[in-house]
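The passage that follows is intended for readers who have already worked through the single-chain material. We present the inputs for a multi-component assembly, then the predicted structure in tokenized form, and finally a short commentary. You are encouraged to pause after the input and sketch how you expect the pieces to fit together before reading on.
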Amino acid sequence: MIHFSNYYSLVSKEAEDEGVDDLYEKIRNEKESGKIGYYTIVERKQELLEAIEAYIKNNTLLKKGKIRNIVVIGIGGSSLGAKAIDRLLHNKKKSTAPDLYFLENCDPLNIRESLSNFHKKETIFIVISKSGTTIETTSIFKYIIKKYAIKLGDKKTKERLIVITDSGSPLSKFAKKYSIAEFNIPKNVGGRFSVLTHVGLVPLALAGFNIEKLIDGARAFENSFFAREQDHLLHKAIYLNKNYPVKRINVLFAYASLFTYFNDWFVQLWGESLGKKDIAGNSVGLTPVGLTGSVDQHSFLQLIMDGPKDKSVTFLKIENFESTTHIPDISLDFLESTDYVNNHLFSDLINAQCDATMESLIRQKDIPVDGICFDKLNHKNVGALIYYFELLTSAMGILFHISTYDQPGVELGKQILKEKFPGGNQ
Amino acid sequence: MIHFSNYYSLVSKEAEDEGVDDLYEKIRNEKESGKIGYYTIVERKQELLEAIEAYIKNNTLLKKGKIRNIVVIGIGGSSLGAKAIDRLLHNKKKSTAPDLYFLENCDPLNIRESLSNFHKKETIFIVISKSGTTIETTSIFKYIIKKYAIKLGDKKTKERLIVITDSGSPLSKFAKKYSIAEFNIPKNVGGRFSVLTHVGLVPLALAGFNIEKLIDGARAFENSFFAREQDHLLHKAIYLNKNYPVKRINVLFAYASLFTYFNDWFVQLWGESLGKKDIAGNSVGLTPVGLTGSVDQHSFLQLIMDGPKDKSVTFLKIENFESTTHIPDISLDFLESTDYVNNHLFSDLINAQCDATMESLIRQKDIPVDGICFDKLNHKNVGALIYYFELLTSAMGILFHISTYDQPGVELGKQILKEKFPGGNQ
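Having made your guess, compare it with the prediction:
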């Protein structure tokens, strides 16, 4: 269960209800148009699960328990979602299942360090690229082919490789030629909205996560939202739109170290979806910032409190950490002033820090604050949270009159890159 | 060697020279006043080194090579600097030296996970807190005392514990009572400016880093700046000040995965120093964002390119990665369009991506872009980079007419936290 709270009205009472029904209808229309696939992908649970189950059943290496490492080669939307979930739910997955690793960057020091621990016999490599020609991904894939002397077409190789890409892409054609197992990304689901397609689900399933519950969580939020039980999302979107561009930075302040990569996933979703030219040609966009509590109370909080009032802050916390780890009842000479937390759970301290920081911002009365609280950290809540942020992003895109699901701004850099290599521009 | 480049004038020609001498004089005055200690701490190299050498010489556990882990218990300015350097220069330290670990957050899942690998016999714990009563730090320290059955006052315990704090603080008094080894932070050096004091140097030295070269690098930049050889820094500060608040977000886009924690260090330094009420009572501040290239080309770049023109972007790259890892000359069927990078070093690819992205932003003509390029990744350059950002922060603080070195905005949250626990407010 997730509890949502909102204190925006303490800052300004604008837009309490105005436009809520209209926004809801627009979101529903976008969903029902079928043009944007993430809305309904979770309704195809059986189909998604059956394809993965069939793959696992037919892979003899997996059946024999020989696989220790699932290595994802992918960048951006091809890695951030699974990486976030892997970090968040690591303690909740099957402990005997293989571990997940991610090769994203063409930093040579990083590639060597990351690959130093993998034995080919214990590893399945998953190459993920929507377009099929992402330069980081294909380059690292080539490096792996050479390093591990992978023979394409070889029977054993087929069990060691998986490709996830758009159907008909160059990478798909490559996979077909060498009979490599392939999963496709629905064409109408963009990379940063693809975590609950096979892009995220295949690596997570192979690594022992309960992907069914993830989907169930997202599905439950979908149903609830479209049954008008989550109108707080619409109010929030309308508020953020009406107060743009004064409040143009959105902070997600998550009180658990495990949310670090989830923050990265949020930053991509929000930044890349909403940083656009609108239909009138104006540059719009909200800048996402991911913080970890309480660590970033010692880093970024001062700026939020006393700096320009251009930020909204969403607090994210886990009510029950399901941990008994507590601060011992030890009183140290001269440090008695810290004893007030003795005998309390560490989780009580971090949650009290979250509440205290939230209150300190609310009292300012010029910082819009809202809260998202998990009862527990589990697959269902994480699935729901993903769907919540995807819906919120769609809502913002509709209000901004932008094309939420593309990323035209990154093409120029890719073009210039090719010009820097002989033969790159052919 | 570090090369600095700047393309701000393509966006606006404001403030080319005006105020440069004045700003320089103000910085020099601040340095010479002696009120702000980080400026000159690097001039006390011998004193800093000798204290650490004496400690190492007298610790029998270190001498016997029994220590495998140096565990820092500290948060914010007490950990971010050493953590950044540890990540950046890990391949450059003595390979036989102990590894560094950081316990920062009171997230119970994180504490248990982090402590699962340490054997007491192989570990030195360093407790760092400027005030001496940081609640996260003292709470984790108590947990460690209990978990490892540490007997305060015991002879062996003395060799396993180090305290780094302000002289006269409660933690200092505690250390003195139990004869625990203690290093002090100069009172006039704030936490986020303390990486080149014993706060950063002690853990780094124990973990086999060449702290002398770190200081030498910072010292060289200090000398060069005060000899007026680095006026680009003054120009940059004046530009950022004159263009505030239109350009109010500063992106540091570092093209190497190893810079991740350095970005965190920068975010604290910039955000906490500059997010302030100025002398007229106005809220000012620049919002820092740390990105990693090329990964975040697939995440945040779209927002920079097409979103609101409220950002400046500083690119950071390493000219020579000293790596021979290259993309093999393998042509994959249907993926021939990616072959233009074959046979090139991975470092050439990541650097070309940096250059291409930089050029794509410069061509926009409404995004201020500058570049920082290391010839190599080494201790001297990292030391210089730290001093560069510290000086730039001081310059901005002077121009904003703010109190750069305090953080009054975080006190309210600390007060509310205490109210949440019985006995907290005594």
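Commentary: The mean pLDDT of chain B is 95. Residues 379-400 of chain B form the longest helix (22 residues). How closely did your sketch match?
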